[in-house]
């Protein structure tokens, strides 16, 4: 059995705002094993990135703070361990790739020097060896003419090449787990596919775990093993990727799937989930999805659905759904 790398349990995050306390993450649990990819999917504001920031310890603080739960990395809770140990783990064993490479990279330092610095600081390499490793890594993430381009600054690269450099930065210390937060959102479709392919290839090569945060179901189909769908700060469905595509067990997931454009659609109007996600300052009663849900019943307005185990007799073992009517949805 693959080693469990990350085990997030009942994580809760609040933000203090002028208008009150916003519950951005309301008890999220997920786990990632070595060599596996978990996609965390949801619309903007669903809490998927805030959860990742809490795991990485980079929540804006104040006003954001973790109010409960555990973040176990190889069995040890990052939230309660000493600051020095946590810094060591988050620096080397756990790495993050951000959506906006231009603001994540240092604009006034050549990219080769930024990569080399990682080896000098964390591995104690000489400047010369660190530079050599930096160029090798740039070559590995397929930056053409890496040796020459190591002296260029971030703004001299295209968006796709900058994202490759971000991947190289994350890979430099050969982490056990990478969290990639919308790594391809700003890129056009072809470059998106190349960057995802590279990430998947490196994940396999280094047998790492990968948490891929995205709002785009199209991006995860070929890359993820399992998917956790988030809505209004909670997980509403988890499933192996193929099962979820074939038979969603939550109306929100079905809505997301129906909104993905298909090549065989002939001029039909694209489906869109009606309405907008709720504000974390004013979550609807009962099931937070009920104002937008085509299947909503009276019970949905008053009773919040727990995360039900989607049972084996329904032909879908190992899945969960936070919907009172998951059986009907599964067989729809
Ligand atoms: Fe829709 Fe009700 Fe299920 Fe919520 S519990 S997703 S409102 S059917």
UniProtKB/TrEMBL annotation:
Entry keywords, A to Z: ATP-binding, Cell membrane, Membrane, Nucleotide-binding, Transport
Q: Which Pfam families match?
A: ABC_tran (PF00005), oligo_HPY (PF08352)
> Record keywords: ATP-binding included?
yes
The terms under GO molecular function for this entry are:
ATP binding
**SUPFAM superfamilies assigned:** P-loop containing nucleoside triphosphate hydrolases
Similarity remark: Belongs to the ABC transporter superfamily.
- Name recorded for this polypeptide: ABC transporter ATP-binding protein
Native organism taxonomy: Bacteria, Bacillati, Actinomycetota, Actinomycetes, Kitasatosporales
């Amino acid at each position: 059995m693959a080693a469990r790398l990350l085990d997030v349990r009942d994580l809760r995050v609040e933000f203090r705002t002028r208008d009150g306390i916003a519950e951005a993450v309301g008890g999220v649990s997920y786990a990632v094993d070595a060599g596996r990819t978990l996609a965390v999917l949801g619309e903007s504001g669903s809490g998927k990135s805030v959860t990742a920031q809490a795991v990485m310890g980079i929540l804006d603080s104040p006003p954001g703070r973790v109010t409960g739960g555990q973040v176990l990395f190889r069995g040890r809770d990052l939230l309660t361990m000493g600051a020095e140990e946590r810094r060591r783990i988050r620096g080397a064993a756990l790495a993050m790739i951000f959506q906006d490479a231009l603001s994540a990279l240092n604009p006034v330092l050549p990219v080769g020097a930024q990569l080399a610095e990682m080896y000098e600081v964390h591995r104690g390499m000489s400047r010369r060896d660190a530079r050599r490793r930096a160029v090798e890594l740039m070559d590995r993430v397929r930056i053409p003419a890496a040796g020459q381009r190591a002296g260029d600054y971030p703004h001299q690269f295209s968006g796709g090449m900058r994202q490759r450099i971000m991947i190289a930065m994350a890979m430099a210390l050969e982490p056990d787990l990478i969290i990639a937060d919308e790594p391809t959102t700003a890129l056009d479709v072809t470059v998106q596919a190349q960057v995802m392919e590279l990430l998947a290839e490196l994940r396999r090569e280094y047998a790492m775990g990968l948490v891929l945060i995205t709002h785009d179901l199209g991006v995860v189909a070929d890359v993820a093993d399992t998917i956790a769908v988030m809505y209004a700060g909670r997980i509403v469905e988890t499933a192996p990727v193929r099962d979820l595509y074939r038979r969603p067990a939550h109306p929100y997931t079905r809505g997301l799937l129906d909104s993905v454009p298909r090549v065989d659609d002939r001029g039909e109007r694209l489906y869109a989930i009606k309405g907008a996600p709720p504000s974390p300052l004013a979550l609807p009663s009962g099931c937070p999805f009920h104002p937008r849900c085509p299947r909503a019943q009276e019970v949905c307005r008053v009773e919040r659905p727990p995360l039900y185990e989607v049972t084996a007799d329904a032909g879908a073992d190992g899945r969960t759904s936070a919907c009172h009517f998951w059986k009907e949805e599964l067989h729809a």
